[in-house]
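Hello Y.,

Per our agreement to keep a running log of every chain we model this quarter, I'm adding this entry. I've kept the format consistent with earlier entries: sequence first, then predicted structure.
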Amino acid sequence: MTETRFRTFLAGIALGTSLAFAAPASAEVSEVTLANQFSLSHLPLMIMKDQQFIEKQLAAQGLPDTKVNWISLAGSSAMIDGLLSGSLHVASTGTSGFAVLWDKTKGQVKSLGAQAYNVLNLVTRLPGVEKLEDLPLDTKIAVPAVGTSPQALALKIAALQKFGPDQINRFDQMTVTMAHPDAYAALQSSGSGVDSHFTAPPFEVWETARIDGAKVILSAEDVQGGEPATGTVLMATTKFRDANPKTFTAVHEALKDSVNFINENPEEAAKIYLAALNNTKDSVEETAKLIADPRMGYTVTPTNVVKLLGLFKDVGAIKTVPEDWKDLFFPELHELNGN
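Predicted structure for the entry above:
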């Protein structure tokens, strides 16, 4: 769903939201709306939808009639609007977009759990370009969300490290917002104007294998300290959790169910992922290998999140870095061994 269509969707359910807020304090929402994205980093929500894990957990909480709505978006901008308005209850987003919103709301938005850590790679098809510094200033780099996505902030961190603090925004003018499937298609078209794509799995593998001259010129992991860090999380407002404790618990438990399903059934998870993208070209076997790639990991436990937010602060994306990862996550996760 595009951002424009999403805003129309929000308008369409605004009345239902206002009625929900007008209900007695003990009543929970009659509908819960979640937003997801397109890469393997967001696979847990695709599993959650396919396996109806939320519906099962809602029934266990005594809420069998609660309706679950699903929408797909390219990046964090519309998700932020939806969460703040109350029309969207739970969103799957990159750690960077979540960090921006957590900082902006002074902790009124927190995470229900991590989803995945992975490798984000910048792919270009431009001849003669072997490293980031070689990119011409008129190139176009597709990212999930300009200014807030993990890929966009990785470019800022790289600019800081390679060119100095006065060049943090060096690559901003090159970035354009595109969903990963659209960026993949654009990179295959000589007339699209997009010649580089800061990917998330599996798009780097597909692009370097199928597009002439396509190659990786930067890894986000390299500029973020060389260690894996949580790349995607689920986020919600504290207001939603406080007003809807049973619904919140159902979503949180469904996330754990989804992560366990992926780790125990990579081939079945691959089938669900390919079906969600209407992808009949790629094999289940190869996609399952990508899911099981040791560079990726599916876990609700936060990994190197505080360190990552420190880098976001260095490039001006956020003002505050928490002393403890638990400041970012709801209490349901505090017993985990995160960092």
